[in-house]
Amino acid sequence: METNQATLAALLSEMGANLADYAGKDITSTSPIDGQVLAVLRADNADQVKAKIDRAHAAFLQWRNVPAPRRGELVRLFGEELRLHKEALGKLVTLEAGKILQEGLGEVQEMIDICDFAVGLSRQLYGLTIASERPGHRMMEVWHPLGVVGVISAFNFPVAVWAWNAALAFVCGNSVTWKPSEKTPLTAVAVHALFQKAVARFGSDAPVGLAELIIGDREAGSQMVNDKRVPLVSATGSTRMGRQVAQDCATRLAKTILELGGNNAMIVAPSADLEMAVRAITFSAVGTAGQRCTTLRRLFVHDSVYDTLVPRLKKVYAGLPIGSPLQKSTLIGPLIDHAAFDCMQTALAAARAEQGQVFGGERVAVAGSEGGYYVQPALVEMPAQSNVMQHETFAPILYIVRYTDLQQAIALNNDVPQGLSSSIFTTDVREAERFMSDSGSDCGIANVNIGPSGAEIGGAFGGEKETGGGRESGSDAWKAYMRRSTNTINYSDSLPLAQGISFDI
Ligand code: UN1
């Protein structure tokens, strides 16, 4: 505890974050590494949440008038702060979320990448010109800032998810209020401090309140979701939470970007490069201790390669280095908490009851980290895609099912309530194309010869069905953060009506 707390203090001070500003008794940040308390913070009460949204709204009214390329300059400066403090923030992610150092750094790199993307975007918020049916008329489409964007983020990507949303929101002319997971408030405090450093360098045209951090529980989040000055809520987390956000926003007809549960599959076809498949399966099934929304959870293996692939996987799984994520050699860090461990054990018991053969899955003792929940990642051979496989369990459990026919495997890929990510390993171009075709995978992400996790920020990120349907990050995801205005301009000296209607007065 002493060591982690000393590390925490050093990291926060390097990033210019002052924990005294947040000290309190409401929200406890616990390190999953050893289960020890890192800090206790105060929660914002209803008045404080309201004041933050007030400030964010006032900031929006100014920020929308700052030219977009200038807005991009602020995001560029923020990207510089992230580059300078990548090690510190990455390590703090490790300390508070339990990711291994490589993945903590990777998460900060995703923030840097989206900043770069957003800076370019700040000069490319393109609209269309449209042919008018009337003589002497011009039609065009213009994108305008939207307002305060409310962001709800989860513990497993405690800093990158905010950045995907915020970097786009800022260049689009919006302000942002952020309600991070109660499990990871410290990383949010650090990011907020780094953003304020960028604001200080930027100058006075960045209004106070451009970025507001709301520390609190579900109630604080709910207050933000229900505030009519927040036209867009972007929420990442459980399907249960997302359903509530969707209902609340629907009541006031606000927009949402929902990034909810995933139940991602991979098909390993007869022609697959099995060496590559083993590496991709392992990274996507056990990386982040199975706690990514893109984690590989279901594996469909063709009958002809099953007996080669599955024993190889078991061999790799048996040798995985499990331990403190601060140790360079570790590949599997802890689960976030005791509750996550219980969910994993419940799912494994259900799998056994459904005739699953479980390999691994037990708790692993790590010396010096007795309070942490470390597990041996589980491989579960299932006779069929049964009930337990319909659910996302946020832990490293990989269910394996044999298949004989590609159409059947694609049907299994799609036969779950979630629709985030999917992949196929094949060197047969016909199979690859079928998997990505209109009658192929129904997910937001469909990959060939890579796993379902670890997406780059340049593509639109999100999924269908219970995953929520929203898209964040690259491509044209920025459009969700703006409002579209269609303008028709008459530069003639007559007033012809559309559809040829005659209306003489
Ligand atoms: C998440 O787990 O919430 O594709 C997001 C990936 C990461 C994002 C994961 N870029 O795995």
UniProtKB/TrEMBL annotation:
Highest taxon of the lineage: Bacteria
GO molecular function: aldehyde dehydrogenase (NAD+) activity
EC number: 1.2.1.3
Transmembrane segments: 142-164
Every Aldehyde dehydrogenase domain range: 25-484
Active site: 259
Family designation: Belongs to the aldehyde dehydrogenase family.
Subunit structure: Homotetramer.
Protein's recorded name: aldehyde dehydrogenase (NAD(+))
Lineage, opening ranks: Bacteria, Pseudomonadati, Pseudomonadota, Betaproteobacteria, Burkholderiales
